[in-house]
Amino acid sequence: AMPEVQPLTGRMLAVQGDLLWQQLGQSVDAMVFSQGQAMPLAGVTFNEPLRQSSAWHDRLLVLTESGIHVLAVTSTETPRLVRESLHALEAAEGFAVDGEHLHLSSDDKVQRFRILPEQAGLVLQDEMTLPGLVTHLLADGAMTWAYVEGEIPGQIGQWWLLEEGEVRGILPQRDAPTLTRILPGRLVWTGSNDNGQAVFMERTLRSSS
Known about the structure:
This protein is 0% helix and 59% strand. It is mainly β. The protein is globular, with a radius of gyration of 19 Å.
């Protein structure tokens, strides 16, 4: 059978089972695939720029200047895309989520919140101030991997592993942090060797003491 082809009208943000999220300007819409058919859902429009988004269970978290918006598809006979809730976190510049753990960054600070059941709110678990600008976060359950820029221009940054408000380890990182992925206890990313060939690279935890 020929594969199903469906043109996209925007930039794909995430795929969750039969649900595809996409961004078009300052709107987020979705498409539900069922029995070989794609059903578009009217989008949710934001009055401010979208900073970041991430799939979370069967929902999409979207970060703007106002905070974290939770988008969901209703389970009614005619599904609709709705803005389910908003967690007011105006200072947040980046985030990562894993299960009930929401990790946020702002300048040189990292916070970890627990998302309450039924999205009843957020509970701050811990926060830390790091020695430089935090430009990227990865979530590993309750642990936070935070990429901290070098203190002077051109200086190599480092990945800091944080857990329960303490530093558990530090990893030097010489490649673009956006290429990094998590495996339990280590970071894996794509880089290039001296011949310009793409290679997979890995670093394991080193004690910070």
